[in-house]
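Quick one:
INPUT:
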């Protein structure tokens, strides 16, 4: 068992987590479609095995993993994370997350019934005080977040957003808000919310708006 707070290794070295994800996904989907009590019992045991694997390798309590899994139902699909690349005087807007003290482009999980563009505009406003308009997609990435949300597969959509109005202020989720040049980007990053590749893609898109959309 790893010490509390220790982050899970990068995806390239965490095959165990991919196996746990797949077991959980098959179990959840199978339970949703099954009406046979014996089959449901076997599938539930698979979900428990998935939780045991994650508990063995990551700093997440077993009961917490089971609780999160129990709250999921239906066919398993990736979650959607939206991020806004917002510039002022060629500097990128970054926020500092209260949850871990790390830095990220503003954004969060898209809600049910959200248009993706509306979701990122709302998140940027809530976290920074800036009213923005999503103008184009920079990239769509295979992405995951730190515990406990890294228990689920996620896609990240990065939007180029234009400031309409507002003033910078922190929020319930963010302690600092600021604009930074490419060589000024603060560290550390906040989990998987923003990575160096996302920052570099944002600056490339600022320089050339016609650059093709990046996708994994």
């Amino acid at each position: 068992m790893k010490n509390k707070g220790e982050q899970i290794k990068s995806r390239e070295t965490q095959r165990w987590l991919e196996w746990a994800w797949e077991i959980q996904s098959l179990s959840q989907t199978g339970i949703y479609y099954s009406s046979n009590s014996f089959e449901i019992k076997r599938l539930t045991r698979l979900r428990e095995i998935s939780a045991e694997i994650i508990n063995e390798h990551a700093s997440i309590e077993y009961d917490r993993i089971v609780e999160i899994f129990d709250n999921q139902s239906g066919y398993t699909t990736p979650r959607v994370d939206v991020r806004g690349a917002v510039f002022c005087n060629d500097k990128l807007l970054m926020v500092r997350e209260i949850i871990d003290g790390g830095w990220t482009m503003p954004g969060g999980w898209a809600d049910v019934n959200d248009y993706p563009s509306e979701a990122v505009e709302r998140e940027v406003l809530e976290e920074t005080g800036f009213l923005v308009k999503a103008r184009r997609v920079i990239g769509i990435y295979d992405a995951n977040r730190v515990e406990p949300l890294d228990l689920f597969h996620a896609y990240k959509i990065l939007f180029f957003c234009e400031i309409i109005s507002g003033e910078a202020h922190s929020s319930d989720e963010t302690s600092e808000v600021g604009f930074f040049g490419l060589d000024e980007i603060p560290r550390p990053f906040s989990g998987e919310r923003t990575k160096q590749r996302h920052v570099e893609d944002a600056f490339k898109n600022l320089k050339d708006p016609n650059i093709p959309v990046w996708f994994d």
